[in-house]
Amino acid sequence: MRITVTVDGTSYTDDVEPRTLLVHHLRERLGKVGTVVGCDTSNCGACTVHLDGHSVKSCSVLAVQADGSEVTTVEGLARDGQLHPVQQAFHDNHALQCGFCTPGMIMQSIDLLADNPDPDEHAVREGLEGNLCRCTGYQNIVKAVRDAAHHMRPGAGPEAERVADTGSRTASSVGGGGE
Amino acid sequence: MTATIEPEVGKGRLRKEDERLVTGRTRWTDNLTLPGLVHLAVLRSTMAHAKIVSIDTSAAKEMPGVVAVFTGDDLDPDGAIGMPCAWPITPDMKSPRRPVLAQGTVNFAGEGVAVVVARGAAEAEDALAEIDVEYDELPVVLGLENALAEGAPLVHEDLGTNRNAVWIFDSGEAGSGAPVEQAISDAEVVLKRRFRQQRLVPAFMEPRACMVDPTAPQLTMWSATQIPHILKTMSALTLGLPEHKIRVIAPDVGGGFGGKIAVLPEEIMCLLVAQKLGKPVKWTESRSETMVAAHHGRDQIQDLTIAATRDGTVTGLKVELLADMGAYLGLVGPGVPILGAFMFNAIYKIPAYHFACTNVFTNTTLTDAYRGAGRPEATFAIERIMDELAAELGMDPMRLREQNWIKHEEFPYTTVSTLTYDSGNYEAATAKAMELFGYESLRQEQRERRDRNDPVQLGIGISTFTEMCGLAPSRVLGSLDYGAGGWEHAAIRMLPTGKVEVITGASAHGQGHETAWSQIVADQLGVPFEDVEVLHGDTQSSHKGLDTYGSRSLAVGGIAVVKATEKVIDKARKVAAHLMECSEDDLEFAGGKFTVKGTDTSTGIGDIALAVFAAHDLPEGIEPTLDSDAVYDPENFSFPHGTHLCATEVDTETGRVRIRSYVCVDDVGKVVNPIIVEGQMHGGLAQGIAQALYEEAVYDESGTLTSGTFADYLLPSAVDLPEFTTDRTETPSTTNPLGVKGVGEAGTIASTPAVVNAVVDAVRHYGVDDIEMPLTPMRVWQAIRTGEKAAGGPGAESGGGLGSIDAAHGGAQ
Ligand code: FES
Ligand code: FES
Question: Where in this chain does the entry annotate a coiled-coil region (chain A) (predicted)?
Fold first, then answer.
């Protein structure tokens, strides 16, 4: 099947097998290897990206389902060499060790902050439930998300979702489940 | 060049590693590709124990995109290749050959049977379904005591036994203490307990992967490994390849926790197939494969007998272990439980001690190192039985510990298991932890809840732990029959512009070496933190090393870095004296400058580097280089310690456990980077708590792993863990120049017993004196009602399971 997907601002047209998962399309065809695969049962969240502004687990979406859509990956967040506030907060709060869960954690955190711009500790933990990290014990990830929220308050910095051209980002009820 | 004023060591530097990791510009092994790359997929046995009658690969070979299909006999027709085990713990240890792919029999579900090579990973995967394997089932050996029972079927018929080895330490024989049997028969109080260490999965987040390029002058292997240097040497030895023709690269590695200390059949397979085909090959496993094929951890039955006086002085400890090796021996698998031999006596002055461990084969995935490796098991058992002894004696559990631990003025202290603890201050860490925790007021609340029969009961768990890390003095490893030393290498390259390249043999996979080593070098050489680049994980640039495990990187590898910088300074001093026309003795080195004492004449080390590069005017007989390297062999282990306190609320109506507060005060000696240290503590705690409450690898009676995905194996998510309160005391190690101790495993080692002690403490008044891990709601609920410690049934609820000593299959119960 021929599909066209815009990923991190670049439009790609490819023939794909109907069974190809979005994450494999991103990694193997488009070279977007910043998004990673940690499991085969949609439990780990390492593959989380934004599909038309909402977080999804890209291992549970078929590439063909993304036809005509905009995908943002962790590679598309920084602008002009400047990190997205959530990326910056992960660095500032030592919210990563090996960094394998980090792309998915960051994408899910951005989605979470779009839904709830000022989450308390519990809300952050709930919002990240679908993303596993084996290294950090989550404490610094929670801290980073709340720190990012602080920096992203109105007037404090850029919008949560900085992919300006989608324009239509609304609060999402999708909790990273990929449905 | 500006000299650093404030010391870098001790500063909470944000990590250099982060930028590429937060932007997705990482080099995980599976991200890499090469021209003409073909992909491997491994067919794995679904049987735990069976004869292979036949393997028909003809249909698979016809599948689109398939380049080749190989069986074990195709890759190794003579059956000559055996995966290495580097730790023969006894001279008569039984070692079965572990082939690259099963030959003749399969011995655990998940063992490789055939490999497909295809243009794409999906095509390789598709072809697996077309391979036809005919099996003839053999009886499955599961459960430690089953495996040792008279007439039990054998995992390896040719070995004639399921017993791998028996390893014994006895203080009476070693002369380090009294005979334990005497202590037990003389004792006023004797307590026996059986504890179970369930089987765990290390569960690094990056699945393992390997790529081999046979087209370069050296065979180049990229692997998601903790041990690139060991892998290089072991690959050469295993396949008889010339070692200088192999280069191993560990690029970005997504966690290890001991799970990537291995020489994989898949790595050897990649080497063989790449050479056969003359093409670069890559293998990346799925998570389902990781769960069954990557080694597991723990899995022991621990029988302890402790002897004491009525007033609470411990007089003897006897430990008898059964340890499940799985179907074969991993790289260091047989030695893992033996590391525990030195840690059961923990922080206590125990006059008589006996340790015996029997390693056992079963038809399960092999076990090997998992974070803590041997020490968590020991710490768990001693800290659990100290609580049980306190209950028996009617003493406060902290009082009992205090009465028996080594006092701070008694260091250095040689223990009954013959280690010499260089330093420690258990009083200080405990005092701080008790205060942060609010011990007395929580005890008060506990009494109140008991008195009013509150459905939610409160429990307090203590773990006052120490551990041995910084593996390891080579002579000690030699005395334990380990196949290598424990030194580490570092090198410094002084570049002409004054920048510095540091080469380390430690191989980080999330620990932040690039940042910490930069801090150390910045202080030593007086150069800016930013001017230091740390190179690691490639045997071509970092040719020598023993890699990262056993909390050794800083305490061994970091010290090698210090030693290498000292040599740079020694070389530079000669040149500086020459340039400034003074004697070497007149120079002092500080802040990156050599200054002639009592003057303001000075030369920076960067200027000396440039002068040495030009080499126009060097003293007679001096080589034009400041570059230096050092190999450091530690004189002793490092002994971090700490006091961990956990308060749990147990809902007696549902069995649900909630960690209300977790406080730990750790003493890891001097700290290079407090942010990194705290991160290590957090991650360590998470894994230790997960063992207590959530995780278990469960086999059914046919030897199938039923917790084989992240849907069934309960890795805690953010909602499952509490916020931790971490703090430190700082008693420097006296055996290394930085005063540092290891930190990587401390949290995991300490936390498991703190949590279990807390839960048992909450429900002890219901007659409960133990609950087997993981403490699922069902098990806790059952324990409260029946006093049974392992009730609650298998896997249907979080982590509850059968494990290797299940009653239904004639296990230990
Ligand atoms: S890869 Fe694990 S959820 Fe997608
Ligand atoms: S940082 Fe390693 S898994 Fe999260």
Answer: none
